[in-house]
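chain below, 494 aa
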Amino acid sequence: MFTPFRNRPLLGISAARTCLGCLSAEAIVLMAFLLVSSSAQAFDPATDHKCVAYCDGGSAPSRGGGYAAPAPSGPSPAEIARRKRIAAGNAANDRGAAARKRGDLRAAVRYFEEAARLWPEDRKIQGNYWNAKGELAARDGNYAEAVSYYKSALRYYPGHKDITKRLNSAQMLVDGDRSDQLATKGKWDEALSYHEKTLALCEQSVDTWFCPTMKLRQQYLAAGQALSHQQWAKAGEALRAYVSEKMASPGNANLNKEEKDFFDFERSAADAIARGDMQQALKNYENMAQLEKKWAAEQGKDSPEADVMLLELRRQAALQAARQSQQKEQEQASNPNYPNPPPVYRGANTPRDYPDLANYTPSQHAAHNDNGLGNIWAQKGDWVQALLSYQKALTEDPDGPFSKTIKENLDIAMKHLNEERAKGTSAAAPPNPAATVPPATQVQVSKKPEEIADSNCTRWSAANGKSSRVCMDAEAHHYCEESDGKTVSRVSCQ
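prediction:
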């Protein structure tokens, strides 16, 4: 309300000298009328008042209430804060997109996380955040985490083609790790079956090299499966195919010496597997593993490829060694002349073996083999064939360091033959002159016929273009006879 100044005179009437009691009633009424009408008409708000209420255009509320403020004409403080938050979220999202574009995934994740915090209700920002986390996890080799992050991103970007491809790629790597874990435990059938299911994702993979790589991995698992079933030829063939295709890759066009050695070891291992030689295959794979461990240490990686197949080869080599040992024990148990498994034959009536030294001449190597063959015949109880083998060995190595052993074996064989004759058994069949010596009409004997008794001799044995045999005289001394196709002569057995 406006309050007029109190010292202003009213229409020429002096307030200081007015006496209401001195006026008539008509004058008083007239005076009151003039006072009211002058205060309403002569008030100048520019000079005669000051604002004390309702100055902003407001109005008194109804029912005698307090003052009501007018409706605001701009955004509320809450709306202003919301707009600022969204703008900051958009700016952080743009920084994240720029960081991702230049390959700085860690910065991209940091910016997208800030944007998602500022504007959580925006689906695109949330999708960008989870997709960037998936890409970073995949780059760091954490494929299981990448799968989880990509699935979260697809909740905000349903059916997004690129994110789906990245998800499939990460899933295939997770499945590959799972296949390796099964193979490491020797479960090659499960590993191969598990791997084949993942090949269905190949066409959806984001990386063009992925599908060929996974198919190549299938050959490796097939080789391990055949090896676990001891299908040597199949395993060797699959492994050779795997190595050949791997070497044909453009990335292996220029190999250094160590890399070439790596593939040579793997090829040699495949060849050894194909012929069933697990010990040699194992040695080649151990050489491969050493190279891979060296490279892995240089590159800060682990789990070399050779380790998976190496474990299976160790299993198979151990099984093969156990089978060979069992077979040898069975053979020894069935041989009365070989009750124990020695590397050297022992006993007065048991032929002896001797080592095959590296410095032997070819003839001495042959003598060692023939002496060993004689021992085998001795184990079987065929002393005639044992005697012939010892005789041949002595002819090949008459003066070697172990010629004495061969001679002792000859004596032992003759002793067993004499014992058999004493029991009335004939251990040696009559010789076949038609097969070993010329007809009797063509033979000229240089000794008296009575000195050559076929019943006391072994069969004829051909060596060095001549036929020879071992005989025994009446005093149980053995001697040798030799035929050159024309004559039969007694010769020294030395």
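The longest strand covers residues 466-472. The chain is about 55% helix and 5% strand.
thats it, cya
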